[in-house]
Every structure is written in structure tokens, then in C-alpha cells.
Amino acid sequence: MKRYRRHILFMALALLTIALVACGGGDKEESAEVTIAPIATVPQEEAKATEPPAPTVEPTAAGPAAESSFQDAIKATVQIEAQGSFMDPEFGMQLNTAGRGSGFIIDPSGIAVTNNHVVTGAAFLQVYVQGQDRPLNAKILGVSECNDLAVIDIEGDGFPFLAWSDVPTKLGTEVYALGYPLGDPEPTLTRGVISKEQAGGETSWASVNNVLEHDATINPGNSGGPLVSADGKVVGVNYAGASDVNQYFSISAKDARGIVEKLRAGTDLDSIGINGEAVITGDGDTGIWVASVESGSPADKVGVEPGDIITKLEGLVLSVDGTMADYCDILRSRNLTDPMNIQVLRFATSEILEGQLNGPELEQSFSFAQAVEVAPEEGATSGDTGGGATYTEFVGITDDAGAVYVEVPAEWSEVDGSNWLGDDGSVLGSELMAAPDLDGFSNTYTTPGVQIIASSGLAQQDQASLVDFFDFSTDCTLDGRYDYDDSVYTGVYDLYTDCAGEGSVIIVLGAEPADRSYSMIVLVQAVTDADLDALDQILSTFSVVGTLPG
């Protein structure tokens, strides 16, 4: 093992981580890079909706017939106005605003299909149906965030409606896009062909494996409108487009139909009750930006608010690729009522909150940056970011074996990830060190840095006994030993302050995962308040991501 500094005991440790644009009332773009405070626009879609009433039955054979041509199909295509308040990442809270999208009726009783991003989180919905002299109220029956689908029930009865197509949609099939683009009160019909049968459907606001690509022009406001064949049957639900390259996308009837049947029965699917967008902030934070929250949903009950960024779900960092893919993979592997650990960045207050969907409400996580202060003596240089300044960029690093991962300030550019070795040269596990100056970190109290040791050979060890091997009490004040618990690791840590009169802070953490298959020791030295921010980042990102050597 390499010597971190004077007080490490070798022998003890030897015993023992499309630019897609949504076609709703406001553009949505697949987030490649979003800047927050200031943050690049995650444009607000049509306003969002509320809670589900009872389901409605299918029309009987004796009932009215579905519209059978695209000329008639426009009668069953509706404009949806969603009114409410939402949090825009660029402009802040937008109160009492309205956005418009499209939808289509699939049952004469008023059951209609649209996109989740058109309706979720709105205070109320009004629907404009051709031939009606006033807008009609509607209720949400069910939504699917990940599939970007929603089913609503419009007041009244005897509506024209569309039938789903049972014919496989092939390359070159002539199709017609119906809807109300750009908020126009008059319906629009455009014509095109299927240009790709299985286009990628991952976006920053939905996660659909495969969708139809076509060239029937759609624009913001077409969200949720139908894509129909020449005989007026629904072959897809329009949800996204890239007008600059004349590519438009529709969730296929084959995939949408089964989901719609579940939603109309009054059950949400792959949802926690948010209208969200995957973002990557200017500071490198990733997650799901929450524009609005459905009342009574799991997200609402745990305390998620508009403007929050959901950074982790079940311990997994979200949206690292700018899409909803990981978020939706987790939701699809769980039931709606299952407990799920959730971490939220409340951007307005810079708080990190943790809780459990269908469990304990969000509470502020412990932050060393808020709880501890450092007071470096004048003249301390290495890692001094300028008093109240903070680090602006964090980078992910791994050890040479690719087993241990952590995020550190970009300024900590000296990295050593060689294996942790015993006195006889045998490999005991992984070791990872980072600092602006590794020599200064190892031999002084005026240079910040981190050292992580991880080994399966330390499995089942008492974490307190591991921490005991690191003793800085000769040069520092031991403030105490404390329990440690995050969504992945538990253990204990010692907190040392005012080391050698320099004002520095050292934390020594012993931690293990729930299965106790290995243990980790995380040692961080903080010299400035900015280093304490770095400590918080280290503690929220350290993990074993590969096979530990040894």
C-alpha cells in the first residue's frame, strides 16, 4: 500500500467501488447540454394535468362507427388546452399559463389519447372539439411519463372517434398528420410517407425503444395528435420532430395501443407523477428537471417540487447521457407502489434532499460544506480557490483497474490509480488518489485531496476498526466519530479539524455496501470551504463500478 501520510498503518490494512424537438405547445429538445443558473432552455410544453376518474368501456359493435377516411378523421382530432403553473428552468415559475397540444378521440364517450408532456401537472384541461360551441372540460385517466402517452376523458358523449390500424406500417406507407400546430384553432393536415419503421425513440423527455419516422410535417402543438393512414386508421401518436432535417416521429399504434388500454383503466404506467426533462447543468450535474408535479402522485407525496432536479433514483445517477433512458429503466423494473430511494437537488436553495418514493419524505442530506468551516492560514496556496470561491468543474476518475469511481475538482489534476499493494508486493485491492499536488497532499496539511482504498479482502470487517487505523489526533482535533448512511453505503467516519494549526479538515470514512462484499476507506483533506463542497461531491459519487483486483 502507498503511504497516504504519516499516520497510515500498513500491516493492519493489509489484512483487510434527435436534437429532438417535441411537437407540443412549446418545443422540447433532447438535452445534449443544459446550463442552469443560468440554464439553457428546457422549454415548457403545454400545461399539465390532474387526477384519474373511473375508466370508460369500449364502444360496442352496435355503437357508432369510427371515422373511416382522413377527411373525416380530422373531426375526431381535438385541441387540448392545459392551464396551470410550471417551473421553467430559464424564466422561473410561470403562473396561470396555458399551453396547447393535440389529441384524438378513440371512443364515442369522449376517451381521447394525447402525450404525457401535454397534460401532466396542469390544474385543469379544456378540449376544443369541432362542432362544439364551447370548450369541454376533461379529466386525466392515466399517464405514462416514459412512453409519453396519456388518456383523458372529455365531458359529454356521442363524439366522432378514430380506430387503431391493425395493418403493419411499412416503409413507404402514405400517412397523414393531423393536429393543431402553433396554437392555431383550425386543424391542419399534412401528408408524407413512413421513412423509417424503427427509428430510435430515446429523448430528453421520454424513453421509447422504437418509433415511426415520417416526413408529414408537424410543428409545436401537434404533440399527441394522430398519424393516420389513407383510410383514417391511427398508425401512430405524434410526439417529436426535427424540422431542420425534415424528420418527424410518432409512437407506433402497435406499441401505443396496449399502453393506452392500461391508462384508460385508471392506472399510471412507468410514472412517478412529474412532467420532467433530462438535463445536464453547466456545473456538470445531471438528472431530471421537474417542471410540474401531479397532485397526489408518489413524487408529490415524497415532497418533490417544480424546479427540483432528480439526481439519483435507487442510487443510480440519472441522465448522464442527456436522456430519460436510465430513469425509465428503473421505473419499468418497479411497480407503481414500490419504495424507491430518491435524491433531489433543490436548485433554488442548493440543498441535496433524500427520501423514498412511497416511503419517508424528502429531508436535507448532511452537507459538510454547510456543517463545517475551514480557516486556512494566510499563505496556504495549494487548492486555495480564493476564499469564498468554489470549484466550477468536477471530473470523474477511476483507478487503473477501472474498479473505483469518484468525481473530484478538475483542479485536482494529479491522479494515481495504481493497485493497493502489500509489503510483499501482492495486490490487495484498488487505490485511487487525486490532488492538485499529490506530494503536498501526502505530506502536508495545506493541500487538499482524496484517497480511496477498496478491497474484497476487507469484507465483513468492522468499519470502526478500519477507521481506527487512521489516527490524526496528534496534529488535529478529533471532533468525534459519527455514523454514516447514504443510499448505497453505511459505516462510520471520524472528523478532524484544525490540523497542525492550519485550519484544515480531515474526514476518514469506513463504508461498505449492503451485501458486505467489500469495504472502502475514503480519506479527504479539505483546506478551504471550496474543498468542503468537493468533499460533498466525493461522498455523493464514490463507488465501486468494476471488479476489484486482488
Give a description of the structure.
It is a single chain. Among the domains are: 274-364, Roll (Pdz3 Domain); 375-544, Protein Transport Mog1p, Chain A, CATH 3.40.1000. Strands 24, 25, 26, 27, 28, 29, 30 and 31 form an 8-stranded antiparallel beta sheet that branches. Strands 15, 16, 17, 18, 19, 20 and 21 form a 7-stranded antiparallel beta sheet that branches. 53% of the residues are buried. The chain is built from 10 helices and 32 strands. The model is unreliable at 1-22, 24-63 and 376-388 (pLDDT under 50). It is mostly beta strands.
CA-atom Rg in angstroms: 28 Å
As for the CATH topology of the domain at 375-544, it is Protein Transport Mog1p, Chain A
Number of strands: 32
CATH class of the domain at 375-544: Alpha Beta
Helix-and-strand structural type: mainly beta
Q: Unreliable segments (pLDDT under 50, ≥5 consecutive)?
A: 1-22, 24-63, 376-388
- How would you sum up the major sheet? 8 strands, antiparallel
> Which shape, going by the Cα principal axes?
elongated
* Fraction of helical residues: 10-25%
Report the span from N to C terminus.
12 Å
Name the average pLDDT: 84
Report strand %: 35-45%
Supply the number of helical segments. 10
The second-level CATH architecture of the domain at 375-544 is 3-Layer(aba) Sandwich
